[in-house]
Design a protein that fits this description.
9 helices; four-stranded parallel beta sheet; alpha/beta; 43% helix; single chain; 217 residues; Rossmann fold
Length: 217
């Protein structure tokens, strides 16, 4: 079986490595291989609409070039950059991690919240949620004020994520949380244990959906 190709659209290899570790439990002997790639042309971090838009063309070129090599593609950035364009350049299924994690959150609780990296990400997330017609199920979005490059500072990041998650739980009434950046993957289990709430890691959610689709008879 051809692999599920997970593409990190930013050029930070540490983020790709974290994604690869987070989806390791999904590598099964009887399941499809999973390959994680870094978009070399991408910016160090996708932290604005401008940087999200900047990766659409190189991302589509990469997916088009791998049409015969992959069974499905996952865009591992919570802005879902180029998702609809990518679906036009390949006959294979393409999954956006924001779309997939939100769909997963709907099965785990009544009101979902998002932990973002920066304040400007909140605006992009709200636009996506409105476009999906899910504003009534959306509790809120709290940023931790740390960009992609700072997500390796584990003590500071976990403290801020825990604080943001507690606010979403206690002030916004959220009963399921989504980590709003692929670079947060390493913190899911500790955050879930600390907050006693389901925490959705978006790339894991997207790859799970890809496996389910590919393994359907």
């Amino acid at each position: 079986m051809k692999p599920i190709v997970v593409i990190n659209p930013n050029s930070t290899e540490a983020v790709t490595a974290g994604i690869d570790r987070s989806i390791a439990p999904l590598r099964m002997s009887d399941g499809p291989p999973i390959e994680c790639l870094t978009l070399k042309e991408g910016p160090p971090g996708i932290e604005s609409q401008e940087t999200a838009d900047s990766v659409i063309m190189p991302l589509c070129r990469l997916i088009r070039s791998m049409e015969s090599e992959g069974s499905a593609f996952v865009i591992a950035c919570f802005s879902d950059p180029g998702l609809h364009a990518a679906r036009e350049v390949t006959s294979k299924p393409v999954f956006g991690i924001a779309e997939c994690s939100i769909a997963t959150a709907l099965t785990r609780g009544d009101r979902f919240g998002i932990i973002s990296i920066l304040d400007n990400a909140v605006v992009r997330h709200r636009r996506l949620i409105r476009s999906m017609g899910l504003s009534d199920r959306f509790g809120g979005d709290v940023a931790i004020g740390i960009g992609i490059q700072g997500l390796g500072d584990e003590s500071a990041v976990l403290e801020r994520m825990t604080s943001a998650g507690a606010r979403l739980r206690d002030e916004y009434g959220c009963d399921v949380l989504i980590m709003g950046c692929a670079g947060m993957a390493r913190y899911r289990q500790r955050l879930e244990t600390s907050l006693c709430l389901p925490v959705i890691e978006p790339t894991f959610a997207a790859v799970t959906m890809a496996i389910g689709q590919l393994m359907t008879p």
